[in-house]
Amino acid sequence: MPPELRHLRHFVAVAEELNFTRAAGKLFLAQQALSSSIKQLENELGEPLFVRDTRRVALTPAGEILLPRARRLLTMADETVAAVRAGTPDRAVLRVDISSSNLETGALVLRRLREDRPEIEIRQREIGVPGGLVALRDGELDVLLGDAAAAPDDVAVEPLRQETVQVMLAADHPCAGRSTVSVAALADEVWLLPPDEVAPEWNQLVLRHCQQAGFRPRRYPGTTWGPAAAAELAAERRCVVPTNAWLTVPDGVVFRPLVDPEIRFPWSVMWAGEAGEPVEALLAAAQAMVHERGWSLPAAQPEDGDRSTQ
């Protein structure tokens, strides 16, 4: 018998949080009920999905295989329910990945799109550039925002913004009082970076500039999900967090531009095939934000050749 959708939804929540207590809170479930649901799913599949001990929760190989497929199934289920409830199968829908909803660039573009075109139904995902490029080509995603260096030739690219990368520090960090922070000043710190499989383009950018400053950063050994968890680690002085600008600054942390060398992140809009009306609307919203905010544009991607070498 195939797993129930609710069991898959519970599994994804635990996989994203890697913490049963936080996942239970996110789902508004008792922790015991969540543990029981995961156990039922593991029994149905005949494989353990998590390694659990007193210190950590981690995915097993079977869990790693299930996670992307469970996400796709849940997305399809949600889209099916939304279409039935809307009763308008021809309603304009835009499936978009803006990297992270707390980052300023994508959030401002979507805000402008909602203001200009409220009739478009926006379905936002956060799967990262590697997974997003696959989803574009498989027809599961309409638009992807991020670094387009790895985009294949059959993915269209529109440069959006060249953004100075910042570092999130505890408000009482010795560098917090500076207007800018040199990369070398953080050589002895622990750096929080996303998993390589989720954001390799980001990690390569940061590591390359650290090496230019004469060191290889020590990476924080764990992972986080969402801005609140990253801000909490930074506020506790457990790590520093290279990041792009956020819409709001959490309590206990500050953001400072990284310099010497300055790190610039090239945002682009990516889509596959002919741009439909919802994609064109997002491109118009993006251009409006470029002009209103005075964003500097990254160099356009070459039409020929391997973008990954640029």
Number of domains: 3
Which CATH-level-2 architecture of the largest domain?
3-Layer(aba) Sandwich
CATH class of the largest domain: Alpha Beta
First and last CA, distance: 48 Å
Quantity of strands, as a count: 13
Which strands sit side by side, in order, in the main sheet? 4-3-5-13-6
Please describe the biggest sheet, giving its number of strands, its sense, and whether it closes into a barrel. 5 strands, mixed
Strand fraction equals: 15-25%
What is the mean pLDDT?
Answer: 88
Structural class, by secondary structure, is alpha/beta
Name the CATH superfamily classification of the largest domain: Periplasmic binding protein-like II
The helix fraction, in percent, is 40-55%
Q: Uncertain runs with pLDDT below 50, 5 residues or more?
A: 301-310
Subunit arrangement of the protein: single chain
Tally of contiguous helical segments: 9
Q: How much is the radius of gyration in Å?
A: 21 Å
Helix and strand pattern: HHHEEHEHEHEEEEEHEHEEEH
Protein name: LysR family transcriptional regulator
Keywords: DNA-binding, Transcription, Transcription regulation
Pfam families: HTH_1, LysR_substrate
Family: Belongs to the LysR transcriptional regulatory family.
